[in-house]
Amino acid sequence: MQRRWTAERVAHLPFRVMFWPLFSLALLAGLWGFTLVRAAEERARLELDALAEVGAAAQAYEQYVTRSVANMDQVSMQLKQSWEQSGGALQLGDMVREGMFLDSAFACVAIVDRLGVLRTAIRPAACGTNLRQADFFGYHKDNNTSGLRISPPSGPRTSSHEAILFSRRIDSADGEFDGVVLVSVRADYFTTFYLPATLRRDGMVATAGAESGLRVEQHRSGAAPTDTALPYDAGLWSGPSAAAVVRARQGFPDGRSRMLGWHRSPVYPLVGLVAVSDEQAMAPYARFWSAARNTALLGTLLIILLGALGTTLAWRAAARQRAGEALRKARHVAELQRLSDEDVLTGLPNRQWLLHYLPKVLAHALAAGSEVALLLVNLDEFKYVNDAHGHAAGDSLLAAAAQRLKSLLRPSDRVVRFGGDEFVVLLVPADSDAHTERVAARIVDAFAAPFALGAERLDVGASVGVAVFPRDAADAAKLLKDAAIAMDAAKSEGKRRYRFYEASLARTVHAHVQMKKSLLDAIEQDQFVLYYQPRVDALSGELCSMEALLRWVHPQRGLVPPLDFIPLAEASGLILPIGELVMDKACAQLAAWRAQGLPLVPVSINVSPRQFASGEVHRELERCLARHATPVALLEVEITESAMMGDQEHIIAQLGAIRALGVKLHVDDFGTGYSSLSQLQKLKMDVLKVDRAFTSELGQSREGKVFFQAIVSMAHALGMLVVAEGVETADQLGILQELACNEVQGYYIARPMPAAAMADLMRRGGRLPRGPVPAAVAV
Length: 779
Hints:
Elements (H helix, E strand, L loop, with lengths): L1 H85 L5 H6 L8 E8 L4 E5 L12 H8 L6 E3 L11 E9 L5 E10 L9 H4 L4 E6 L5 E5 L22 E5 L11 E7 L5 E8 H4 L1 H31 L4 H23 L10 H18 L3 E8 L2 H8 L1 H16 L7 E6 L2 E6 L5 H16 L2 E3 L2 E3 L3 E8 L6 H17 L5 E3 L2 H23 L2 E10 L5 E12 L3 E3 L5 H7 L2 H21 L7 E5 L1 H6 L2 H11 L7 E6 L7 H13 L3 E7 L6 H7 L3 E4 L1 H4 L6 H16 L3 E4 L5 H9 L4 E2 L10 H9 L16
Parallel strand pairs: 16-17, 19-21, 21-22, 22-23, 23-24, 24-25, 25-26
Antiparallel strand pairs: 1-2, 1-5, 3-4, 4-5, 6-7, 6-10, 8-9, 9-10, 11-13, 11-16, 12-13, 14-15, 18-19, 18-26, 19-20
Helix pairs in contact: 1-6, 9-10, 15-17, 17-18
């Protein structure tokens, strides 16, 4: 037997001697392969994050530029109107004395007559000479358009311009060319906006003309270069808004590689650009690679030492060798178990650990007759941190939040990274509700203090939902669900607070679900009706039109206010079938009134943002009009400003399709969205309905009247009728009559009324009494 054992050992001896070197080589290959793959993934992730950050910065900068240019748009339009209305007697010096154009950003403001001569000017020396030969003068002379022109001063196309020229054609009374409004603005007015955390050193912001050689730039250092630092090839940013890495060889004059983000203005022919140094943006990768490489080198050394040691130990007894191998394997298994239960980012136990641990804790508490409190903690503004500062900052914030939570608890309590920006705190045991409430309050107060991450101070806050076992729930799943319901309630009440679970909260969630089901039933069972609010001529009081307003007649709840169901319908997508239902009912009612021989006026219906975005409104209108043989002139469409923001080509196409049917278009709630008069001119709307917020200011302040007058004047200049919403007093009506507002609508004129009351009104000739409508017909 001794000889057989010796022979077996000798037979296995070469394999055991070679095993450790081969094993070491395999480990080395795996280590370096993992390191290189991880480094490549990290580089790709950081580059994507940096590009996304640059793209977001470019969009923010473009919005800043668009708002700034919109101000110049309004200024030039006001100067044009004032000059034309004054018959050429306007003096800009008087406007300076009234406090206008004092900002040093205005390099020159002037009125140039049809011969190219300055008629009146502010800082005329900066306006230049021989204006008759200027590009803008020739453009306006040869083009019969009142639109705003944006152009650079004369100079090479590759230079960074020091000023931007805004100009607008002046027409004589007979529509002939009569001169130009000229507003010259210093370029740094459009480049003072930058994000220090994004641009860093060697970054820059720039505005480029999408249809001209205009370029204005500002380096992160604050120095404006005489020559452009942008790549000479403007084709780089000629496509859709995006971000890309532009290497030095592709055209940055200073020889640096940069990440370039650009965003095209949806309103003006301008592009906002943001560029950051590729080297600085990818600095975290350099640090990561240095640390990963050093770790891999240390691992290499350890693996070599392990291989040498293993080769030496291979000569020892086979039984001892097998025991050692078994022991090493059992360490390995424990480490894998630990890693599977631990969150890599924060070092806290993870969701998997909690789902195994929580049932055991609850069973022990039930046996001991004690309570366990589960606090679900959610960071309130974490998405903003990721969007504004990048995922690296978000990861650092989560790690800091974990440490802050741990510092607030007892040794017996546990903190778990539940996922995303959510943490679970277990109070084991929960001594009392008072103790649990103190812990929840400490968490809210602790997270109210900003997190200092390097040079950044991030303000996030936390909302906390609390559920207690066994009072609120009998098992782990229900306990987590109840804490989530309480946390959602804390957020809905304003965030940065805590809320204990109550049965009423679950009922609220259930009520939301039931409301959605009731909406579906209402659509199927035709529980919706239309009320109609008259719109009258501001001077005569004669009925001009009416707005169809949706009402829900619930079989048990009665009349449900629109604000109780419209937001849910919009969020759930049910607004699409409801919107089509409104169109159909309006056309059907018009057909019924027509059959009764009533003197009809147009009915306007509201189209929601989600309806308009679907791109099917014109087809639905065409079907409803045809189904009820309704004359197209009797149906009008109201669309809010906010619904028309986005892809301008798509919006213009949709509006054109509706207009092609012969349907008039209203801009509803004007002043609450983000639009300019130039944009309204492009959209070719028929009626501008001014939001009730501006009507309510009439008679309250001088500024309210001035602002409303400006809206009326400019809307009339664009060929649009003006309707004032929310007229509630005789004083407001009197002011609107003075301001030449075309039509009015509101409770002072008439409240919304059912179809029968509206029919009676039309039979009486359509003239409405002044003052509130009697309660019998007002709803």
